[in-house]
Specification:
This protein is α/β, with parallel strands linked by helices and about 140 residues long. The chain contains 3 helices and 8 strands, in the order E-E-E-E-H-E-H-E-H-E-E. An 8-stranded mixed sheet has the order 1-8-7-3-4-5-6-2. It is globular and about 40 Å long.
């Protein structure tokens, strides 16, 4: 039986994909290759792993305000995460998601989730996010 968790949608949308979970914040600028969606920050626990098409669960964005531009480029290149689930508000990523939707018509849902609930989502889980922020995992 799967799990159902209520998140707070910041950017509403429906998405599904395999969960990639990190307990470390990530700077998209210099931390994610916008051409491939692979984490390139050699100090990050997901270094070498792709977040393209994944439900990316992580504490939040750190660093540069240009992270919004990297998210836009990920969308343009078809390498964006299916959804972003964060534990701290992330206005920079929200801005990138809004711009990408306006430019390319692709929504990258962004949801805020309490840390104790985020810990219930594990890498490899398959998750579905609805427009109301309900996250369901499928066994």
């Amino acid at each position: 039986m799967g799990l159902t968790i209520k998140a707070h949608p910041i950017i509403s949308g429906r998405a599904e994909g395999t969960v990639v979970h990190s307990r470390k914040a990530l700077s998209f600028w210099g931390g994610v290759d916008p051409e491939t969606g692979v984490v390139i920050d050699c100090h990050h626990d997901l270094c070498g792993k792709s977040i393209a098409g994944k439900v990316f669960v992580f504490p939040g964005e750190k660093g540069s305000s240009t992270a919004s531009a990297v998210l836009v480029e990920l969308v343009r290149n078809g390498r964006a995460p299916a959804a972003l689930i964060v534990m701290t508000p992330s206005p920079i990523l929200a801005l990138g998601a809004i711009i990408a939707e306006q430019l390319y018509g692709r929504t990258v849902p962004l949801a805020l989730l309490q840390e104790q609930d985020a810990c219930k989502l594990h890498s490899g889980d398959f998750a579905i996010i609805d427009v109301n922020g309900m996250i369901r995992t499928i066994d």
